[in-house]
Amino acid sequence: MGEDRGDGERPADRQQHRDGLAGLVRPASADRQRQDAEQVREDGPPPSTGRPLTRRAHGIQGRRGWHGPRRRIHAGTPPRRPLRSTPRESPLRILTALLLATVLLVPAPTTSAAAPDHPQLDPDRPAVVEKRVIGRSVRGRPIRAWRLGDGSGPTVLLISTMHGDEPHTRRILQSLRDGRPIRGIDLWVLPTYNPDGLVRHTRKNARGVDLNRNFPWRWADLDGPYESGPRPRSEPETRAVIRFLRDVRPRWILSFHQPLHAVDTDTKDRRFSRRVARALDLPRRALTCGGVCHGTMTGWYNHRFRGAALTVEYGARPPRRRMEKTAPRQVLSIWGATRHR
Ligand SMILES: [Zn+2]
């Protein structure tokens, strides 16, 4: 209870906050009504039970060590090529290209050349290949995840709005979800981890718990701005995400927060941190929770799983164009993934 509060608790109006460093109290913004409307939209369509891609069908884990691309790395020279866990010219890709070429040569008046090679779940969201409700919040709101991509690359998860008063980075994930089909990656997006907090414009969930202190790794009984709950995984949102991560086991996780404007250096793979910072045009900095991070999602995942989870912080008010246009493209570039033209 004591150690985090000593240097972690800072005046609420101070902008220095780490993902969890301080309870940032942000004044009401004009974006709120729009955010609420978007939340309603996210909550709108019923979940599908269909699973067009078999779970982890791509054998990402174990195909190559997560230090796999080591041979590409030269001392002192950051890697230029995207992080991938499958070769570019796998037989499957070549076969797919040949099949696609064959299809295109056959007259097919109603077929679009840009059609993805997977069934569409949602005509309005051609990038989506699977969608799930992974659980519900304290107030019963669904926590939704969408799967994008053609599954030909590494399994990646993007998470946003774990803290309800950090709503802007959701737009990166929503833009990827709502845009053109994506290839070269097996990508999950979870735009709204804390739907109750988003509606209430609070960092914490509806029971006043900081979800990023509620994970069962170095959990401590914290009070105040980092209220960690009565026990590890006490919150339904935490349990939902734990179940989901155990199931999907992403090779890479980016956990988006605000407003520190930095990529954390505290991860299992420093090259990953460097690559993400360079791709997203953000500085790197150790985001230390003012000492020891207790009960954080990234800490838990990095300790328990083979994949690497990394905290990415944008500023307090990142430009909308950056969130909706620039950053989505930059995120895909980390793994060499692209959108269909
Ligand atoms: Zn945060």
CATH superfamily of the domain at 120-341: Zn peptidases
Mean pLDDT: 77
What Rg is obtained from the alpha carbons, in whole angstroms?
Answer: 20 Å
Highest-level CATH class of the domain at 120-341: Alpha Beta
Record the strand order, biggest sheet: 1-2-5-3-6-9-7-8
Helical percentage: 25-40%
> How many strands appear in the DSSP assignment?
10
Q: Compounds present?
A: zinc ion
What is the CATH topology classification name of the domain at 120-341? Aminopeptidase
If you had to describe this structure to a student in words, what would you say it looks like?
With 341 residues, this protein is α/β, with parallel strands linked by helices. It has a domain of 222 residues: Zn peptidases (Aminopeptidase), CATH 3.40.630.10. 28% of the residues lie in helices and 14% in strands. The protein has nine helices and ten strands. Strands 1-2-5-3-6-9-7-8 form an eight-stranded mixed β-sheet, with helices on both faces. A two-stranded antiparallel ribbon has the order 4-10. It starts with a helix and ends with a strand. The N terminus is likely disordered. The protein binds zinc ion. Zinc ion binds next to loops. One of its GO terms (biological process) is proteolysis. This is Peptidase M14 domain-containing protein. GO terms for molecular function: metallocarboxypeptidase activity; zinc ion binding. One of its GO terms (cellular component) is extracellular space. Belongs to the peptidase M14 family.
